[in-house]
Amino acid sequence: MINPSILSADFARLAEEARAVEGADWLHVDVMDNHFVPNLTLGVPVVESLSKATDTPLDLHLMIEDPDRWAPQYIEAGAGSVTFHVEAAAAPVRLAREIRAKGARASMALKPATPIEPYEDLLPELDMLLIMTVEPGFGGQAFLDIMLPKIRRTRELISRHGLQLALQVDGGVSAATIERCAEAGADVFVAGSAVYGADDPAKAVRDLREKAEA
Ligand code: DX5
Ligand code: ZN
């Protein structure tokens, strides 16, 4: 699955930019609060408008403090999937259950320095796990290849538990790095600058998908 990140789109033309990647599986929406990460993007009202403007389901990536409080509001605003950071969540199990109970897919993100092993027992509560391949906060950063062993170990854990969890990578994913991520076991790929920085974003999505499947 290829999920273009609208962080690299033109925020004054969000509806058009969302439609430019129709055919993508999900639209990745980065919510930043200037506290959990040193950047500020958008909030509930923008997500609400965006969900009405596109048929592509929204994959929300909450880079915010107190996701326990905010996640339900993003689901009401139209999010089909909600990713919270384990470093920010007060009660990750309760939060994952609440997200699912409200009808969205529950997903948990790990910053580059956060290991997966302490959270092994949480995996059955999740529909997706996000392994950050850059420090969260900004688009256009270089892919951290030292994350590849973590992707591989996480995929092994998921298989060992017999789970059907999606494994998402986010940060520096491009035609140059996507094959290594896929080979390590990722199956959902977020791409911001590699899609919206291209002359033809829809073609960039198709090209990435082809590379991931190769
Ligand atoms: C970064 C965000 C990413 C960002 C990725 O903190 O979570 O989703 O948009 O951008 P690229 O693909 O340009 O690294
Ligand atoms: Zn993201």
Describe the 3D structure.
This protein is of the alpha/beta class and 214 residues long. The protein has one domain (2-213): Aldolase class I (TIM Barrel, Alpha-Beta Barrel), CATH 3.20.20.70. 34% of the residues lie in helices and 19% in strands. It contains eight helices and eight strands; from the N terminus they run E-H-E-H-E-H-E-H-E-E-H-E-H-E-H-H. It has helices at 14-19, 44-53, 67-76, 92-101, 148-160, 178-184, 193-196, 201-213, and strands at residues 2-4, 27-32, 58-63, 81-85, 105-110, 128-132, 166-170, 188-191. Helix 6 runs parallel beside helix 8. The chain is globular and about 40 Å long. The protein starts with a strand and ends with a helix. It binds D-xylitol-5-phosphate and zinc ion. Zinc ion binds at residues 5, 28, 30, 61, 170, 190. One of its GO terms (molecular function) is metal ion binding.
Total discrete domains? 1
CATH architecture type: Alpha-Beta Barrel
Helical stretch tally: 8
Give me the CATH superfamily. Answer: Aldolase class I
Instruction: List cofactors, ions and other ligands.
Output: D-xylitol-5-phosphate, zinc ion
- Proportion of strand residues: 15-25%
Strand segment count: 8
Main pleated-sheet profile: 8 strands, parallel
Low-confidence stretches: none
Helix-strand string: EHEHEHEHEEHEHEHH
CATH class placement: Alpha Beta
Strand order of the largest sheet: 1-8-7-6-5-4-3-2
Radius of gyration: 16 Å
N/C terminus separation:
13 Å
- CATH fold name: TIM Barrel
Q: Taking all residues together, what is the mean pLDDT?
A: 97
